[in-house]
Amino acid sequence: MPTMLEVGLAVLVLVALFGAYRVIRAVKPFIVNAVVGLVVILIAEFLGAQVAVTPLALLVVAIGGLPGAILVILLATLGVAFVPGLLAVPLLL
């Protein structure tokens, strides 16, 4: 015969599983958009565009999907945003 502690733990585990399922179901489209957008950005970099993949660029691509990736590439091409920085070059003072 199960004790109240065992029943409570079983209920807690079920609640955690259902909660994790809902979180994964809600986040899945953003992950798919981010992966598709990063593939598009990598293809654009292969074709000659220089785009800095930053957390902000990844957020734009994850929310916007393919149009977000095109926006990031366009802004990087125009030099407005997401342009690779010169962090590797030492500053001469």
Textual characterization of the structure:
The chain has 93 residues and is mainly alpha-helical. It has a domain of 56 residues. It contains 2 helices and no strands. Helix 1 runs parallel beside helix 2. The radius of gyration is 22 Å and the shape is rod-shaped.
Summarize the helices and strands and which ones pair or pack.
Blueprint: H1 4-46, H2 55-78
* Series of secondary-structure elements, N-terminal to C-terminal: HH
Mean pLDDT: 85
Helix content: over 70%
Please give the number of β-strands.
0
Q: What proportion of the residues form beta strands (DSSP E)?
A: under 5%
Shape: rod-shaped
Largest sheet: none
* Number of helical elements: 2
Structural class: mainly alpha
Short description, anyone?
Helix content is about 70%, strand content about 0%. By secondary structure, it is an all-alpha fold. The longest helix is centred in the N-terminal third of the chain and has 43 residues, at about 5-45.
Structure keywords:
93 residues; mainly alpha; BofA; transmembrane helix; BofA domain protein; transmembrane; membrane
